[in-house]
Amino acid sequence: MKLLYICLGLLLLIASGCKKSFLDRTHPGELTYDKFYRTEADFQGAVNACYLSLKPQVEALLVFNDCISDNTYEHPYNFTGDNFFFDETNVPSSSTNIKNFWGACYRSIALANMVISRLPDSEVPESSRGVFIAEAKFIRAYSYFNLVRIYGGVPKYDNIADINQVYETPRSSAEEIYDFIISDLVSAQGIDAARSPAQAASAKGKATTVAVNALLGKVYLQKHDFPNATTVLGNIVNNSGLTLEEDLSKLYDANNPFDKEILLAINYERISGQNSPFTNLTLPRLSIGLLPNVAGTYGNGNFNIEPYILASFDQHDKRLNLVDSQDILVGQDMMRFYFTKKYQDLGTTAQGASGSDFIILRYADVLLMYADALNQSDRTGDAYPYVNQVRNRAGLTSLPSGYTKEQMNNALAQERQWEFLVEGDRWFDLSYRGFNYLKATLNAFFPHSARTVGASIEDKERLFPLPDTEIAFKPELLNQNEGY
Q1: Which of 260, 301, 383, 421 is in Cβ range 3.0-4.6 Å of 374 for a Cys bridge?
Q2: What is the DSSP letter of 67?
Q3: CA 29 – CA 215 distance, rounded (Å)
Q4: How large is the angle between the packed helices 126-151 and 209-222, nearest 10 degrees?
Q5: What is the tens place of the pLDDT at every residue in 445-478?
Q6: Is residue 238 packed enough to be buried (19+ CB in 10 Å), middle (13-18) or exposed (0-12)?
Q7: CB atoms within 10 A of CB 276
Q8: What is the DSSP string of 330-357?
Q9: Contact predicate 466/99, CB 8 Å
Q10: Separation of alpha carbons 367 and 120, rounded Å
Q11: What is the pLDDT of residue 82?
């Protein structure tokens, strides 16, 4: 999302609250924030900082969804490092990814709470407060949604928390967290109406009412509230006027961050400190010639696409045009690695200076979620037009008529894998369909994996472990997830 990066200093100021010397103070907020959070410009910078804080969250979603599933695998020489645990579906509570994701989500929540809590005592006019609160609640809801899907029930903070409150707050149940998420999103639905004409003119790339409702529909779907999911998603499909991008290459073009299909994306720039990590993460390790304006080798090889999954695509599927390969010498062997071109920024002129964006919500997701909600509501026949829109855009024929509910469920899971390959969706989508579905799907795949032939999904992996550092911090209030 295009943001005013002048708020970086504010983000760093608040992030410094993680230091021990800062936490030792009983009321850290009283140290500086009362003086800073006063004017409308202050709160605009604070809200921009909230958006910026989402970057560490989305940068971990490929690990939690693609790496651990049947979508991608680590380079064969990457035997160490935290992603290896995910690739082997053997994630310990000491995992760096586990700790960092927890911290990233709560950092966003703390920033959002600061905005919401400080506004009543500020000099901001009433006409501008509504949009700031709505944006902060959307970001808080998105962060809690990521937390609850990864860890289950987590501590809930709905206000600025001093160190004593942090120590004393136990885990809420997953149901309580979902209720809180829904409450925030329902409250944020009026975000477009709250914007003044000037705010609307400068709001490109920020949360909109459609984005709020798309996330709300995803939340309802995740908790199997199919009537509400059908209503919310159906309203977008039938009343928003949105359409799919006909040209898939435009959808992922770093020069086109506001494509008509994108509802919300994290925007990166081709400059130091604001560049996207996804190009290097998704290109094969030590690849060459894939970025025409960059000399030498590059690429980390963290998310090589599984050949087994590529073989499932129809040969006429246009989404295959978003996949490429390169042969690279590994030891004494020449190996072929497949990678997504969704993050291949051909315009970058320096290694690591990529402007490729990360899409959080797009219209194809809304269409497939709506089809899912209809199917789960025993309206399988009504689901066809929406999944077929996505298929037809990809150059595929429509689904055969006469599917049962189970057949449509399987078709939608497959369609979503093809559509959102390496977009941080797969594990969440499988888990939504039930842990038994996820377990059966991935255990059937692992014997065909390019690397993790011996991996398997165990019952404990319904959820990921809480960070061991958090358990040590509050051993009496944070019980570890079962099996870890």
Answers
A1: 383
A2: I
A3: 31
A4: 30
A5: 999 999 877 789 999 999 999 999 999 999 999 9
A6: exposed
A7: 25
A8: ETTEEEEEEEESTT--TT--STT-B---
A9: no
A10: 39
A11: 87
Give the DSSP per-residue string, 281-315. HHSPTTB-SSSTT--S-B---S-EEPHHHHTTS-T
Angle (deg, nearest 10), helices 226-239 and 363-376: 140
Q: What is the pLDDT of residue 80?
A: 66
Cβ count within 10 A of residue 138: 27
Q: Of 419, 417, 388, 418, whose CA–CA distance to 401 is shortest?
A: 388
For 254, list phi and psi in degrees, rounded to 5: -65, -20
Bridge partners of 333?
Answer: 330
Could you count the other beta carbons within 10 Å of the beta carbon of residue 447?
12
- How many of the other CB atoms lie within 10 Å of CB of 120? 9
- 430 close to 405: Cβ distance less than 8 angstroms: no
Q: What's residue 480's pLDDT?
A: 96
Distances (CA, A) of 400 to 312, 348, 389, 407, 414: 18, 43, 14, 11, 15
For the chain, which residues score pLDDT lower than 70? 1-36, 78-80
Q: Contact, 112 vs 97, CB < 8 A?
A: no
Question: Does residue 164 sit in helix, strand or coil?
Answer: helix
Residue 443 backbone dihedrals phi, psi, to 5 degrees: -70, -30
Q: How many CB atoms lie within 10 A of CB 461?
A: 22
DSSP 133: H
Block residue for tokens 């944006």: 135
Nearest by Cα to 355 from 286, 280, 260: 280
Collapsing DSSP to helix, strand or coil, 407 comes out as helix
Do the strands 323-330 and 304-305 form a parallel or antiparallel pair, or are they unpaired? unpaired
Residue 41, class by beta-carbon neighbours within 10 Å (0-12 exposed, 13-18 middle, 19+ buried)? exposed
* 3-state SS assignment for residue 462: helix
Pairing of strands 72-73, 304-305: antiparallel
Q: Residue 128 corresponds to which tokens in the numbers above?
A: 């501008």
- Read off the tokens for 377: 């509501």
Of 50, 70, 18, 433, the closest CA to residue 222 belongs to 433
- The residue behind tokens 């290459």 is 249
The crossing angle, in degrees rounded to 10, of helices 29-36 and 8-15 is 160
Report the length, in residues, of the chain: 484
Question: What amino acid occupies position 12?
Answer: L
CB atoms within 10 A of CB 366: 25
Rg (alpha carbons) of the chain, rounded to whole number: 22
Angstrom distance (rounded) from CA 77 to CA 337: 13
Q: Is the pTM of this model over 0.90?
A: yes
The torsion of the CA quartet 73, 77, 82, 88, rounded to 10 degrees, works out to 50
Beta bridge partners of 324: 339
Q: How many CB atoms neighbour CB 42 within 10 A?
A: 20
